[in-house]
Design brief:
2 domains; 8 strands; 8-stranded mixed sheet; alpha/beta; about 350 residues; Spore Coat Polysaccharide Biosynthesis Protein SpsA, Chain A
């Protein structure tokens, strides 16, 4: 292994420079790490992601970025920073997340492949932490997860129907906002299962990797900031339509039930929605109010100092949140019927 010079435009942190030199590209130009970013019609978000990648402490000579775009999207495209080693792949038409990620990792010879999304901003030390975890595995098949937190520049938007993502440990769901696998392991698994067209492809991949004996590590320093998406009610309901594929995931991986709420509900919110609905069907106002109370309390943010204003804001958004959670619960149940797997 021969270390290439660090990109002088990239920031350096403390004692991390040596590792950045050590993981530079091979003599033949093959990067040590490839970052796969599927994208669709999010040019501003993508610009943030690419700038964050250009600022990686590992040095831009050590990795390449595979942007995977849809062939049916036209118009101005975000130019990557000049110092970033980037290749763009274009799908024949609109590709699913699984198809795009497969196209990305198959186009690189890098021995470690990291996945993130176009609405994420990796911390400057993200790739360096992933590489450190990989190198300490001494060539063993490896799946690496890292932390995901709402973007600190956008946390003030986390109200109403806004959504983001939080991952604080290796939770068994293997979210591709921050996930890396060794290339030989990806080849053995034949990548993502493209039958998961909307959701679940990342969890399925991780669970299949574990089934082959691959080790799972959580890289504490590999942090990614996830955007906060503010959604109107119709868009939020459409966003939850993908829940209909979760039951198929559980059917294929029955042990994943241990990670469900009460082993039947995909999320605790689904159980609370079902309880509230049962109270409504009883047609007794007092009973309906009592049954809805747990759902209302679950939507009260206890990290905010108690106040009448906050309580009023929760009450104002509660009907819309209930509608969205109800839509997701219904979609989950529909998928359960189709997959013949008990799930709500």
């Amino acid at each position: 292994m021969v270390g290439a010079p660090r990109d002088p435009s990239g920031p350096q942190v403390g004692g991390l420079t040596a590792l950045g030199d050590a993981v530079a590209a091979h003599v033949d130009g093959t990067p040590r790490v490839a970052v796969v970013v599927p994208t669709r019609a999010r040019e501003t978000r993508l610009a943030f992601a690419l700038e964050a990648l250009a600022a990686q402490t590992i040095g831009t000579g050590a990795f390449e970025v595979l942007l995977v775009r849809d062939g049916d999207v036209h118009g101005p495209r975000t130019p990557p920073p000049h110092r970033l080693r980037t290749r763009t792949l274009t799908m024949p038409a609109r590709g699913t997340p699984a198809e795009k990620r497969n196209a990305g990792w198959r186009a690189t010879a890098a021995p470690l492949v990291a996945f993130t999304d176009d609405d994420c901003r990796p911390h400057p030390g993200w790739l360096e932490a992933l590489v450190a975890a990989w190198e300490s595995a001494d060539g063993e098949p490896l799946v690496i997860q890292g932390a995901v937190k709402p973007d600190p520049d956008e946390t003030h938007l986390l109200t109403g129907l806004a959504r983001s993502l939080t991952v604080t440990a290796a939770d068994g769901w293997f979210q591709t906002a921050n996930l890396a696998l060794t290339r030989p392991l990806l080849e053995r698994l034949e990548g993502f299962d493209e039958r998961f067209s909307r959701t679940g492809e990342d969890t399925d991949l991780g669970l299949r990797a574990v089934a082959t004996g691959a080790e799972v590590r959580f890289a504490e320093g590999a942090l990614v900031w996830h955007a906060v998406h503010t959604l109107a009610l119709p868009a939020a309901i459409r966003d939850r339509a993908r829940a209909d594929q979760v039951a198929e995931l559980i059917r294929r991986h029955p042990a994943q039930r241990d990670r469900l709420y009460r082993r039947v509900f995909w999320k605790r919110s689904h159980a609370l929605v079902a309880l509230a609905l049962a109270g409504m069907l009883a047609r007794r106002p007092a009973l309906a109010a009592l049954a809805a109370l747990p759902y209302a309390l679950a939507n009260y943010d206890r990290s905010v100092p108690p106040s009448a204003r906050h309580a009023a804001a929760v009450a104002l958004h509660l009907p819309a949140r209930f509608a969205v959670d109800l839509a997701e619960t219904v979609q989950t149940a529909r998928g359960a019927v189709r997959s013949r797997t008990p799930l709500i």
